[in-house]
């Protein structure tokens, strides 16, 4: 399958470009970026073609992988889907639910394959854990703490304007939701509160009656940074394992799932429809925090 890459930032270098270049069933056909010099540099390093026009790259490929901020990703993904191209997207799909829904609708209307790169969801250890935990059932609650400290000179993602503007809710919030949704089910209501810096607390009601509590930040004090997720219920306490993974290997597994779906296999669990539900929850959380009310989905 011929792939085009959109994006030339750190995530494109760490995950997308090396995975596409190394995949035995992928032809890495070209790259487009917002900076011509960076586009040329990535194309040269990974021995592909630099494009200066979005639609020209879309026209030359079967699928696109996008490593761009969500507000830039969504319109490109829609153009690609309307042109009949399969999609490998980053999270969050968009910053507004209606934008994500437009992409999902275009994918469904053309029977395309899609996958959203919720990183650790593409590790065998976590996939097996979530499948077994969901099958066990009886869970009444979950707690996810995902707090980082990315605005340091040595962190390339700290220079991202959209992360500074949107904070942990939109950056690590999708990862937290990608853990609780497969086990506890769809979210029916959300409320939240903002703390200092970008600290965000969410309380979610799930369709089966369970609740989950998410604590999120990307600008936490370094000493407060932590990642932990726990499910509780009739089976006791179950802590989500910390699987080892590398970005390019995980992206390669996401591409595997996309290729299988495009060949007639099942849609990936983390497809664009799942990504759209995550975006809707994040948008509702933002509204709940702003209004001081519970928002129902």
Question: How would you portray this structure in words?
Answer:
By secondary structure, the protein is an alpha/beta fold. It folds into two domains: 2-120 and 247-272, 3-Layer(aba) Sandwich (Rossmann fold), CATH 3.40.50; 124-241, Dihydrodipicolinate Reductase, domain 2 (2-Layer Sandwich), CATH 3.30.360. The chain contains ten helices and 13 strands. The protein has a seven-stranded mixed beta sheet with strand order 12-11-7-10-9-8-13. α1 packs across α9, α6 (124-136) packs across α8 and α8 (173-184) packs across α10. The mean pLDDT is 97.
Write the layout of secondary structure elements.
Layout: E1 2-6, H1 10-22, E2 27-32, H2 36-45, E3 49-51, H3 54-59, E4 63-66, H4 70-82, E5 86-90, H5 97-109, E6 114-117, H6 124-136, E7 139-147, H7 161-171, H8 173-184, E8 187-194, E9 200-206, E10 211-217, E11 226-233, E12 236-239, H9 247-262, H10 272-291, E13 295-296
Helix pairs in contact: 1-9, 4-5, 5-10, 6-8, 8-10
Question: How do the helices and strands follow one another from N- to C-terminus?
Answer: EHEHEHEHEHEHEHHEEEEEHHE
- Number of structural domains: 2
Order of strands in the sheet with the most strands? 12-11-7-10-9-8-13
What's the gyration radius in Å? 19 Å
Structural class: alpha/beta
Strand content: 15-25%
Helix content: 40-55%
In DSSP terms (H or I, runs of 4 or more residues), the helix count works out at: 10
How far apart the termini lie comes to 37 Å
Name the CATH class of the largest domain: Alpha Beta
Poorly predicted spans:
none
Number of strands: 13
Q: Largest sheet, described in full?
A: 7 strands, mixed
